[in-house]
Amino acid sequence: MVDFKLIAIALSIALQLFGAIVAITLIRQTKYNSSWILISIALMFMAFRRIIELISHLEGAMPDELEHLYNWLGFLTSLLIAFGVFFITKIFKLLKLLDLSRSRAEQRILNAIIRTEEAERQRFAKDLHDGLGPLLSSIKMLLSALKIKSLSDPDKEVVENAHLLINEAIGSIKDVSNNLSPHVLNNFGIDQAIRSFAEKISLGKEISFDIRSDIADSRFGFNTETVVYRVLCELIHNTIKHTKATKIAITMTHPEHKLKVTYTDNGPGFVLEEALHNDHGGMGLSNIISRLKSVDGNIEFTQAGSGLLISIVVND
Q1: Most exposed: 65, 82, 94, 170, by fewest CB within 10 Å?
Q2: Rounded to whole angstroms, what are the CA distances from 134 to 126, 130, 142?
Q3: In the listed set 48, 68, 87, which residue is the last one of a domain according to the structure?
Q4: Number of domains into which the chain is organized
Q5: pLDDT at residue 279, as a whole number
Q6: pTM
């Protein structure tokens, strides 16, 4: 006849020994955390108690010595588990510290990327302004030195068109240089920079801006201003490019050492999950979220009526 109790005891011994051995092998990875050591010993004692049960079952009775050992092992097991659970908070604190360390490392890397990116933008903008700008101005001066009166009408038209194209090229270089490294942001802060950007964007486009702010005289950290400015510019571009919005409203406030920005438009909005996986060739929402995290900020998206409400909060 099959002894199911014997089989159950044998299986439980095998499983408890396996669990105890695995726990002991992980002690080093927990940096010899006291709670893990106590729980590992408790698991081993539980297996020993089962072995005593097995011996007693085979012999038909439990000798007094084994019974005392069995009871004391039970007491010690309970004691070890109690202390292990009590000290296990150290493991959670360690995990929290590791998570915080990883988060700070990611933040430092993103900050370094942003600073490097902005430095390259400034260098490229300076090269454009100081390199191509003077060359085009010199060409313009040379064209101006031509004796227009002595030229035929077709040649005059060519020279005049060349003047127009050079003027347009000089203006384009100034715009590109300013977009790469906006001097308004560096000199006057995010409030004036966004107003200047919105003013240029609204020219020739059927879209209006309503910008309200109480941070006109406030300055923030370099990374904070740069990230928030780039994010707002990207949101404006996305609104113009991908929606039929005719109005954009931006509010910037500075309560309790925080920079709060709300961005709304009257477009149709979007599905957040789809937008997170579709960068549209721009910065992309996932990139926007990670950049804001690098300056201890977060962003929330809410469907507001027929439009979109975006809330940005950055700790100052």
Answers
A1: 65
A2: 12, 6, 12
A3: 87
A4: 2
A5: 53
A6: 0.58
